[in-house]
Write a structure and sequence with these properties.
Blueprint (H helix, E strand, L loop, with lengths): L7 H22 L3 E3 L7 E3 H23 L12 H11 L5 H20 L8 H9 L2 H15 L5 H23 L15 H24 L10 H11 L5 H21 L7 H9 L2 H11 L2
Antiparallel strand pairs: 1-2
Helix pairs in contact: 1-4, 1-6, 1-7, 1-10, 2-4, 2-5, 7-12, 8-10, 8-11
Length: about 300
């Protein structure tokens, strides 16, 4: 969902957390049980992970509301993370995967709306820390736990590329969110708004994912026989009935699926075709389109 935030800081946190949650959603769809927190870990199901993430998103919303109301020196949750985590897991045992996921996304929706409404004079480091610490930073931390639990060693070069792509993707999404109704494309090309740009990235990233999976599984790769401009216009026409929220969600999910493939494919399975596919839709493509926006 696109939310017009009052500050650039909030837009960046919203874009980063939306992207991280989309990636977490794709990743946990294929995860059964994941082990967290190292040697003294507990085995958590995907529902436990969603429950945990949702609880801390709710905490952030509570802390920001209290801070905005004038309360200071809030230490209710300091130093007791494990205590709260264990208690919450027991309380949430009855939640199935979809219920836990839905509750986490609802908690994020409340926090998202809250930080979007904070005006520039009231935005400060405490609000930023509450929002990002239990948002994008926390979600990415748990994504890393899931990857480590799978025991798959992806090529270091691929993981480095993924980090570079993520670092470019989040500010790009934030920039598109900031100007939803403006023409944000090459001046010599069609007048694409953020809706068309998100749709463009969704389509090409989905194609990249399909190409990567085909190469990994030894199947023929899907082919596109038209020129890029022709296929871009065709896809834009096919997606014209979709609203901005739909294409934005689709683009974030596609980027998350791409990230999951990169992070979960063992080094010995990588081929030249897979390397080529992930090179096509990453940093360079994002930077090209971000350059059209100019911000």
């Amino acid at each position: 969902m696109v939310t017009t935030a009052r500050t650039e800081a909030a837009r960046t946190i919203i874009a980063g957390t939306d992207a991280a949650l989309a990636e977490l959603s794709v990743t946990l769809e294929s995860a059964d049980r994941v082990t967290l927190h190292g040697d003294d870990a507990h085995e958590w199901t995907a529902a436990d992970v969603w429950g945990h993430v949702g609880r801390w998103l709710g905490v952030s919303a509570e802390l920001i509301r209290r801070h905005l109301s004038g309360e200071r020196d809030i230490h209710d949750y300091d130093g007791g993370g494990d205590q709260f985590n264990l208690a919450w897991i027991e309380e949430d045992r009855a939640l199935d995967l979809e219920a836990a996921r839905s509750r986490a996304l609802e908690a994020w929706g409340q926090l998202r709306g809250l930080i979007a409404d904070v005006e520039e004079p009231r935005w400060n480091r405490y609000i930023a820390a509450y929002a990002s610490g239990n948002g994008v930073e926390h979600v990415l931390e748990h994504l890393q736990y899931v990857v480590e639990a799978a025991g798959v060693a992806s090529p270091p070069s691929a993981l480095a590329r993924l980090e570079r792509d993520r670092a470019a993707w989040v500010p790009f999404v934030a920039a598109l969110d900031a100007r939803p109704g403006e023409a944000l494309h090459d001046p010599e090309s069609p007048d694409w708004t953020s809706r068309e740009v998100f749709g463009h990235f969704a389509r090409w990233t989905e194609h990249e994912v399909a190409t990567f999976e085909a190469a990994r599984d030894g199947r023929p790769a899907p082919s596109i026989d038209e020129a890029d401009d022709v296929v871009n216009e065709r896809w834009a026409s096919e997606d014209r009935s979709l609203d901005l929220d739909a294409v934005r969600s689709r683009a974030l999910r596609a980027f998350g699926a791409r990230a999951r493939l990169i992070a979960s494919t063992a080094a010995e399975r990588w081929t030249e075709e897979m390397e080529a596919s992930v090179s096509a839709e990453g940093y360079d493509h994002i930077a090209e389109h971000h350059g059209y926006i100019g911000g």
